[in-house]
Amino acid sequence: MFHPRIEHHRLVLCTTAVLLGGFALLAWHATKDGIGAGYTDPVLKIRAVDEALYVNASMRMAQEGDWLTPKAFGRLFFQKPPLVYWFSAFSIKVFGLSLFTIRLPGLLFGAASGAAVFLWCARYRSILAGTLAAAMLLSCPVYLAMAHVVDVNILVAAFIALAMTTVALDPQMERRSTWICSGVFTAMAILAKSAAGVLPLITWAVYWSVAPSRLRPPLMRLAATAGVAVLVAAPWHVYQLFAHPQWFWTEYVDMQLLGIGMHPETNGLFNQAQTFYIQRLWQLDPILTLYAAVGIAGAIWAVRSRDRLPELLALCWTAVTILALASFQAKYLTYIVMLLPPLCVLGGMAIPRRAILPVALLLIFKAQPVTPPMEGAKAMRAYYDLQRDTELIAAETDDDLYSETLPFHVRYAAVDPSHTLATGKPYYVSLGIVRTRDEFLALPELEPTYARRLREWGENSSEPIGTAIMLAVPADLSAVIRTHPAIDFYVPAGWTDVIAQAEPTHRVYRYSRDRVFLLSRAAGSRREPLPPVPAPW
User: pLDDT of 491-506, one tens digit each?
Assistant: First the structure.
């Protein structure tokens, strides 16, 4: 038996080793996929489309220096809180712009979550059990995929895990550092993904209500934890409410918090069964699924004595997260990242000692999905290399907004006869961000009105005007080409009539079997080249 001081020292060293080893594991091949190219759902072949938006906002923040107000597409961007942009922008400022540095925060905090899982299980079971729990988490295909992109889910999962582990090490919150640190970690989770960040507070409330009264933490310390979280997370929100009240309320509160996920929609992401997450986890990582099932059963058995606080806290954490995912209307596989740490903790706390090494050997059979290259991103990079002295309109784009990370101006056109984009975000229409074909053709006359409205909403730039064009049919693009002969276009190869009508003013460059560039004969190469883009990107 080790002396308590020696045991504590050993635990710290092992946790540090897991943190460094986890980072090395996550960083391995972290740049094998370009921006937005990695699969976040390999089954449905959904790529990380949001990564381009987060990268664009982070780059603008690092370049323009406005650290309080995120921007993307040249406009205010409040779809997510600022933490993901702060971390990536800070990494750019410190280490320079590269694909690795912009993804560095996700790799670091992804490893920190693994270290938290290890520390929990090592403290109450054994170092071997903690190592297996951390390895289960860090080798999960979904977790690896999310750590390899710029995304909010890996950050919120990490900070929730850190907050929960802080309390797990001191379940009765006897130390002042416990409620202060757990409050700070909760605030960071809120700044990463708004409402999802309050899951620790809900978990502790549930835990307090079911724990034996003699073992509960004082209610005032739970309140103090919530107070610290509010104190840290509130200033940014209050600032935006005063600085950009209309835009912040419309996008951050009304659309994101009260709209998406709270009201049923008709698309497939809202019609998934409640078993969606367990089915997908079984498809992608059956080893972790069985491991978690053993953990849940073991925790339920263990807490019958009502004195097993670590298992009880982990079980409350798991239950609250499952209920939160079930209550949210949208079902995205990326959300399961928040559930993986508590599942791994439960498995680590319950797995029999004799089974640890045999189960660890199964990790070598975990398969990682292969992601094919994104052809649209290659096309946008090829267009960037042409250094064209004009803007580009991309119709039915296949690059998942990758072009937003490149230093040229691009607009988007989509066949949308029912105007679903305008219906989903009506403020885009009133501000001139989304336009029909006819409205885009009349943009010179309408632009002063849109610019005034943007200023009233706190946006002084006219860059967002006309970002997206809604077409009733593909042929509508021909009128846009005729009235803008100096602009380049990127269109599907199947739009043969559009391509044929563009030939008098544009050179046809067939990039691939499916895509064609229409290069304006009136435009040429830039006198001053565009800024270089790091490789790989």
Answer: 999 999 999 999 999 9
Confidence of residue 2 (pLDDT cuts 50, 70, 90): very low
Q: Which long-range contacts (CB under 8 A, 24 or more apart) does 429-432 make?
A: 431/457, 431/459, 431/464, 431/465, 432/464, 432/465, 432/466
Residue 6 lies in a domain: no
Q: Is the pTM of this model over 0.90?
A: yes
DSSP symbols for 188-243? HHHHHHGGGGGHHHHHHHHHHHHS-GGGSPPHHHHHHHHHHHHHHHHHHHHHHHHH
Q: What is the mean pLDDT of the segment spanning 450-478?
A: 94
- Whether residue 259 lies inside any domain: the answer is no
Q: Are residues 400 and 436 part of one domain?
A: yes
At 182, list the tokens: 């757990």
Kindly state whether residues 180 and 52 are assigned to the same domain: yes
Element of type H or E holding 516: strand 515-520
Considering only residues 478 and 7, tell me which one the structure prediction assigns the higher pLDDT: 478
CA–CA distance, 350 with 125 (Å, rounded to integer)? 9
Q: Which of 302, 325, 162, 172 has the alpha carbon at shortest distance from 229?
A: 162
Q: Does residue 407 sit in the same domain as residue 338?
A: no
pLDDT for res 305: 65
- Position with higher pLDDT, 151 vs 213: 151
Range of the domain at 221: 14-251+273-365
Torsion angles phi and psi, residue 140, rounded to 5: -65, 130
Nearest partner of 317 among 174, 171, 132, 160, judged by Cα: 160
Q: What is the mean pLDDT of residues 274-293?
A: 93
Q: What total of structural domains would you count in the chain?
A: 2
